[in-house]
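Q: What does the assembled structure look like for these inputs?
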Amino acid sequence: MDELAMIREAFPAAPDPDVAMLARAQLRLDAVIRADRPRHAPWRTIALAAAAVALLVAGLATAAVATGLFDRDVTRADLDARVETVTRTVSVCRAAGDCSPPRVETLKEIMGDQADGVLFIDPNGRYVQVTPAGNVVGSETASTYWRAAAGTLEYGKDRSHVEFALPHGGTRTLAWTPGQGSVDVTDRFAGGNTSQTTLHSGDVVPLLPDTLDDQPYTPDKAVTVELDFGRGEGYSLWIYPQSNEAFAGQEPWRDPRPTPLVIPERTVTTYGLVTEAPGRYTLPVTAEGGTWTYPLRDGGTRTIAWHAGDTSVTVTDHASDGAETGTETVPIGRQFSAG
Amino acid sequence: MRPHNQQDASRLDDVELIARSFDEPEAFGSLLERHHRPVYRYLSRRLSVDAAEECAQETFTRAFAARGAFRPYRDSALPWLYGIATNVVRERRREEQRVLAGPRADAVAWDDADDAVDRVAAGELRRRLGKALAELSPVDRDIVMLAAVAELSAAEIATALDTDSRTVSTRLWRSLGRLRATLEDQLLGRERSHHG
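A:
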């Protein structure tokens, strides 16, 4: 036996990955993909085949009950509770033109949402997203701050963390418990002082303290609404109640995109967006503020209202019969799905 | 956004798939479905099972971020992915050294060696090989492991490690010679101790 064969024999491979392992890998990749174009696509659905169904059923049984209109600590059980059964046609290719016959698979899918995690904005306005429920970190590849910190990222079964350098020395550590919904932020300053705070699903905050103060339109100053959640799209709308403005499509804190991000007409119509130019949208706003009502998928309606100069918006849901089903005040620096 | 067409994507080769992923990032998911298994199995030979799963995930997220620097080998992305996986292993040297140093606690689950004598012999072979591999330089060890457990050709290893195939062939030949010599030394030392 030659040396290479001996090594192969002495170091055997583990059994093939099961579907749950593949789904976990897909989940993490999807978060990275999504964060790379976070205002354009929701998490791709996560396929879980039949063998994982038992786990999902267990997740359903323990799904957390949401308080208010929006979950503030989205857990793995919440993700699992969104499981849907779908079918798709699959063909596996060994090489171009060498593909197996298409076969139809029945899969379990979960649709993730950007608001499932905490969204950090780096000093250049790029995104770093931490979603403890899925134990994933995603970032735009253009984030130099993320690239500098990526080597410190450690995923653990009980605890995961990543560390960023603070502008004037010291470190900021983001740590979370996989499957839970909160992120602990610990700053260790160069002088030896430390501070700690806990963030929750849906928070939108600067990645590093005091680095976005001179940028009026970064999304930590907005209430972000993710449109068309669950329908394979996922365009964002930013409401700035303090300056009484609203934007969708082109991000107001960034240079214009080379190619305008055109929102489908169906979505524009559904949400009553006003098209100002290709890829630039807003809401009807008066000098006093805005009142925006759109249909919910369950047949009801949601109204989001604000007064000019406010630091929050009021979200009120009504059922199809007109009865109010819930209301919540959402401050700036928060995001949620349109529903 | 154009919806990602799973069926269409599965008919593309790796080069086409990665090209498409610049317009439709979700297409990269098909690359994971296609290559996760061999990458995970490669990593599971070099690391613990838990670390292999984690590192396989890391390999594909890094590959997505680095797809602008994709190096195809013919139409396949697999050697390039093995290269990224190898870089991830390099960051886990301590974990790798543990695996090389002794019997792995997680090996029982897939150990087919029912016979106790075979099991002991396999353990002894592993111990000796692990010691010999640990004495190679990290780059030489990567080349040997890519050749042995991923079964890549010199040209594929060159793609994986972004070097040239002549260098790979030279280093592989030299490393295998060292492995052979180390194993023979170990064997002779053992025989001497038995006879002594």
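The first helix of chain A runs from residue 3 to 10.
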